[in-house]
């Protein structure tokens, strides 16, 4: 099931920016989605380790990054960006005497396409790498690939809210995070 979900996410990731590759890319001026930003998110983490039950716990994290817009022949530009993040996933009891959680830090790349007359809605895909550090009864860390999808909405000129799903497989531990969050666009210039 994880393999099928991973393949589906990779196909979605490759399909979104494919249209941008067929068109000449050029930088476009500021849109609601360009520039530096910081953000915070919280939600539910679903984690599993080899031989243990899958359980839910709370997750919270912070992120920061930069997005730019590439012009194309349609009304809205393609949005591309990079982000650094840190996620703290609380511990949960997975089997009778095994309780663990995880902390993850890493980098993600994103591609999105603004929708709406004012381009206030941004569906996007992400791909990245994260260093997953097991906490509690499990130890060790491993770097694993991350995939995800999300949707952001501008509620104010510098403020956006969003929902996101990210999945990561790192050796013997897998994480799925379902979060809601807020981003603040930093002033430019």
Automatic annotation (TrEMBL):
It comes from the Bacteria. It holds the Pfam family OMP_b-brl. Residues 1-22 form the signal peptide. The keyword Ubl conjugation does not apply. Coiled coil: none annotated. Keywords: Signal. Residues 11-184 form the Outer membrane protein beta-barrel domain. The keyword Membrane does not apply. This is Outer membrane protein beta-barrel domain-containing protein.
